[in-house]
Amino acid sequence: LSNTAILHQIRRDQVTDTCRANSVLSRKRRVLTPNDLKHLVVDEDHEMIYCYVPKVACTNWKRVMMVLTGRGKYSDPMEIPANEAHVSSNLKTLNQYSIPEINHRLKNYMKFLFVREPFERLVSAYRNKFTQKYNTSFHKRYGTKIVRRQRKNATQEALRKGDDVKFEEFVAYLIDPHTQREEPFNEHWQTVYSLCHPCHIHYDLIGKYETLEEDSNYILQLAGVGNYLKFPTYAKSTRTTDEMTTEFFQNISSEHQTQLYEVYKLDFLMFNYSVPSYLKLE
């Protein structure tokens, strides 16, 4: 076995062990429904299934999947505009198949996902959805709700626009039991285990954002396309880093930090991310 194969085996074992140790939390003893499978993108030609996790290079992976499933329509992933990569009709997801077809694919296809340090992913989602002026749909749908619930004496404008949500307010919204009861989290901050169901679906490969290029190209190699398709690399200066995440957490009370860690705890454990050193857990 190559070192890479061993590494992926270790990652798989970590998921299995975490699922077993937290079976009450992670399994909830339920059967997956087709609705649970809308994040699993299927590539029939190469018999692959990719579970996409927003804020973990999913735009580029969707582009790659469009090249793989486009039957020659695209050759360069980076020529596909980002917004086109997110048009749902451009890729086929597992929930569009019949139950026997779903089971056949889950059993026989190569399944993979990519993960990222949970709080870094969270800060990345916050920065993208709440601090960019163009994300008005997010401001309207979530921002106004967060301001209404978390901000005392909010101005009429803030209540109407919802475009100035502070990170502290976002965190308070996430840990509010009311939020959890009301509706599932938006996919940009939903936990990986809720999006991809790693305790029910046995993933062959778990890629990490921290080793994105090596892991991605290894998967493409296993798929037999590595000789003509490489994962797009680009230096992104705006990327959310560990230092930046540390800064965002400075103003979060230790009580809220502890509650937030509980929400994302399974993702930390399952994908072997240690408790961040900047956290002041109670």
What structural keywords apply?
Sulfotransferase; 50% helix; 282 residues; 2 domains; globular; five-stranded mixed β-sheet; 14 helices; membrane; single chain; alpha/beta
Describe the structure.
- The protein is built from 14 helices and 5 strands.
- It has 282 residues and is an alpha/beta fold.
- The chain has 2 domains: 3-117 and 191-223, no CATH class; 119-188 and 241-265, no CATH class.
- Helix 9 crosses helix 14.
- Keywords: Carbohydrate metabolism, Glycoprotein, Golgi apparatus, Membrane, Signal-anchor, Transferase, Transmembrane, Transmembrane helix.
- It is found in: Golgi apparatus membrane.
Task: Produce the secondary structure layout.
Blueprint: H1 3-21, H2 23-27, E1 40-43, E2 48-51, H3 58-69, H4 82-85, E3 92-93, H5 99-108, E4 110-115, H6 118-130, H7 136-150, H8 156-161, H9 167-175, H10 177-182, H11 192-196, E5 205-208, H12 212-222, H13 242-249, H14 254-270
Parallel strand pairs: 2-4, 4-5
Antiparallel strand pairs: 1-2, 1-3
Helix pairs in contact: 6-13, 7-9, 9-14
